[in-house]
Amino acid sequence: MTQQEIRWLAEAQAGSDMAYGRLVAATQMMVRGFLRRLLGGRWADADDVAQDVFVHAWQGLATVRDPDRFRSWLIGMAWRRAQDHIRSNQRRARRDQDWLQSLTTPEGVSAEDRIGMETAMADLPADVRACVALSLAEGWSHAEISASLDIPLGTVKSHLSRGRERLLKALGEQL
Sign of the C-alpha dihedral, residues 160, 166, 167, 169? Predict the structure, then answer.
């Protein structure tokens, strides 16, 4: 660490937000670069983890006793946060896979049709997609959807009508 960085660390440990900001600015490229390489070039994930690292570093700054070890302390924290992130993603992927395997395709519906439906659903605006998903997949009434999403009943009906039309069109069926 440079002498200036050592001063910023001492000031940050004394409670200076400005000094901590300067310390972050001086070390963030190192942390982000390490995380980008560690996470296989997934820059958005690396940046999210880096932000988490700097928040936790601010909270644990008082534990740094030797300024010359600050960078290794920070990289160690980045390593542990990245490992948590990787494990979390693996758990999420397993849950998603388990969920996908639990789905049953109705008799007479081909895998291609199912994929086409999922693609068509993904193209719907979020509010329309939510209404269609609750109605078709969960069997909710218009009133239940309205109450749950805090959308007027008429709007729910319009979303369902437009969503149905767009899905049928996307799947190549005639209305």
Answer: positive
CA angle at 18 for the pair 17 and 22, rounded to the nearest 5°: 115
Domains contained in the chain, CATH given? 3-101 (1.10.1740.10), 111-170 (1.10.10.10)
Structure tokens at 28: 């963030």
pLDDT of the residue at 174:
37
Return the axis-axis angle of helices 17-38 and 43-60, rounded to nearest 10°. Answer: 140
CA separation for the pair 43, 32 (Å, rounded) = 8
DSSP 97-165: HHHHHH--PPTT--HHHHHHHHHHHHHS-HHHHHHHIIIIIT---HHHHHHHHT--HHHHHHHHHHHHH
pLDDT above 80: residue 112: no
Rg of the chain over CA atoms, in angstroms? 25
CA dist 160 and 125 (Å) reads 12
- Is residue 175 predicted with pLDDT exceeding 60? no
| pTM listed for this prediction | 0.60
